[in-house]
């Protein structure tokens, strides 16, 4: 755990730059898998109401015996819970499932522009933060124009925007927007969901030069450009491998090669069109 750097957020809190994600992990496997992550040194866990495994994450937290102040727990507001009151009610339900009195980060999962409730939802998040139920609040999958409205119509700048980000979808313009406004970038699908990215010859060459795997190279790239990441795996060896990225550094040439892999191709939905 001591090898994982911290990233300071705009409210003064510090988030571990490397975490562990539980997206698409079956609830029946979640508690054991999170315990394996804890055993490997992870202290930052990313879940969501949508994933249906918050209670099992909570089970792992309770069984771990780890001090609460060593852990960073993120959850996300489900798309069915937009609105000032609903977002707060949903967080109360998440806290009950997680067995916690607060989360470290609460995110709006998607902006859902067609419903046009994300500003009111964010105001509910501000209340949850003021009440001490969310140490930090942020968003996920927001585009600059969504963020502009939050900045113009509310009092709190999101600490984080969690977005699809990997070498085939590098989001340079959005990352630049974040930097200008003091928002940290968090990457979901950091290694491209295993859909061919790791087979790229550029990554194979870099991996061979460093004695690492292509996945470790991509995760290290994220670390070096300042992204917060939380790769997911249910394989103990891969869980440990994803942690072993702090004993090498990519060269300037390596970074340029990866930058050249940009395709601007999404694996997930377009945030401007997704409204479910």
TrEMBL record:
NADP is among the record's keywords: yes
Record keywords: NADP, Oxidoreductase
Signal sequence extent: none
InterPro entries, alphabetized: AKR (IPR020471), Aldo/ket_reductase_CS (IPR018170), NAD(P)_OxRdtase_dom_sf (IPR036812), NADP_OxRdtase_dom (IPR023210)
NADP-dependent oxidoreductase domain residues: 24-261
Source species, domain of life: Bacteria
One Pfam short name: Aldo_ket_red
Similarity field: Belongs to the aldo/keto reductase family.
PANTHER family: 2,5-DIKETO-D-GLUCONIC ACID REDUCTASE, NADP-DEPENDENT OXIDOREDUCTASE DOMAIN-CONTAINING PROTEIN
Name of this protein: Aldo/keto reductase
Taxonomic placement: Bacteria, Bacillati, Actinomycetota, Actinomycetes, Pseudonocardiales
């Amino acid at each position: 755990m001591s090898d994982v750097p911290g990233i300071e957020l705009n409210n003064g809190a510090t988030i571990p730059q490397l975490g562990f994600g539980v997206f698409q992990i079956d609830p029946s496997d979640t508690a054991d898998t999170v315990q394996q992550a804890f055993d490997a040194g992870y202290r930052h866990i990313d879940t969501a109401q949508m994933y249906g495994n918050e209670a099992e994450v909570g089970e792992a937290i309770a069984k771990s015996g780890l001090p609460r102040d060593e852990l960073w727990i993120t959850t996300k507001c489900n798309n069915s819970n937009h609105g000032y009151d609903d977002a707060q009610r949903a967080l109360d339900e998440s806290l009950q499932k997680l067995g916690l009195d607060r989360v470290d980060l609460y995110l709006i999962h998607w902006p859902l522009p067609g419903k046009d409730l994300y500003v009111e939802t964010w105001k509910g998040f501000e209340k949850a933060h003021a009440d001490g139920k969310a140490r930090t609040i942020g968003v996920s999958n927001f585009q600059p124009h969504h963020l502009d409205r939050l900045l113009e119509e509310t009092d709190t700048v999101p600490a984080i925007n969690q977005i699809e980000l990997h070498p085939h979808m590098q989001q340079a313009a959005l990352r630049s927007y974040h930097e200008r406004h003091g928002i940290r970038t968090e990457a979901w699908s950091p290694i491209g969901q295993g859909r061919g990215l790791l087979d790229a010859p550029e990554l194979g060459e870099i991996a061979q030069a460093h004695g690492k795997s292509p996945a470790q190279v991509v995760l290290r790239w994220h670390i070096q450009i300042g992204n917060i990441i939380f790769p997911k795996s249910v394989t103990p060896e891969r869980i440990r491998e994803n942690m072993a990225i702090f004993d090498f550094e990519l060269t300037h040439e390596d970074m340029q090669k990866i930058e050249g892999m940009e395709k601007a191709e999404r694996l997930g939905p377009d945030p401007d069109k997704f409204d479910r």
